[in-house]
Amino acid sequence: MSRPRSIPDDKILGIALALVEAGGERAATFSAVAEQSGLAASSLVQRYKSRDGMVTAAVAMRWRSLLAGAQGAAAKGKGAAGLLKALDAPHPDLLTLSLRDPGLRAQAADWREAVVAALTLRLGGKAARDQAEQLFATWQGQAMWRAMGGKGFRLKAAAKGLSG
């Protein structure tokens, strides 16, 4: 069977991202992505220049997706807990990779601000922004805890506790 001549970036980067989320940053190698995509590893090197370049592009794509999801969910009339349940939480490895790269860190900050702004609108009141930031941090802590095999808690109870 011949190799495909071209595969869109979003498909290749989706494969790289899935490898990162399944096995950590080091799992996204040119050979692993080539195997799953059907492209030659040399084609990937030509396109992304380095493994780090490919991984950074994959993480940036995911941040754009998370931001679009946050902006879309913000337009819906759900409460604070409902909003957070409707959103995807970034994989812990995504956060770790984003701390090292200023561009990725800025994208993560944009996503965080979109979520906090939507929570602020839902919570209302004088202390809404502070409560939104606390709820965001609680939500992210829960996501990290679950990723490590811990049992989560009800976000609705956390939201009520903050606004009550």
In brief, what are we looking at here?
By secondary structure, this protein is mostly helical. The protein has nine helices and no strands. It has helices at 9-23, 30-37, 41-48, 51-74, 80-86, 92-99, 102-123, 128-147, 155-163.
Give an overview of the whole structure.
- The chain has nine helices and no strands.
- The protein is mainly α.
- The longest helix is centred in the middle third of the chain and has 24 residues, at 51-74.
- It starts with 8 loop residues before the first helix and ends with a helix.
- The model has no long low-confidence stretch (mean pLDDT 89).
Number of strands: 0
The biggest beta sheet is recorded as: none
- Integer average pLDDT: 89
Shape: elongated
Which class best fits the helix and strand makeup? mainly alpha
From the alpha-carbon coordinates, what is the Rg to the nearest angstrom?
18 Å
Low-confidence stretches: none
- Which band does the percent of strand residues land in? under 5%
Number of distinct helices: 9
- What helical percentage do the residues reach? over 70%
Distance between the termini: 63 Å
- Secondary-structure element series: HHHHHHHHH
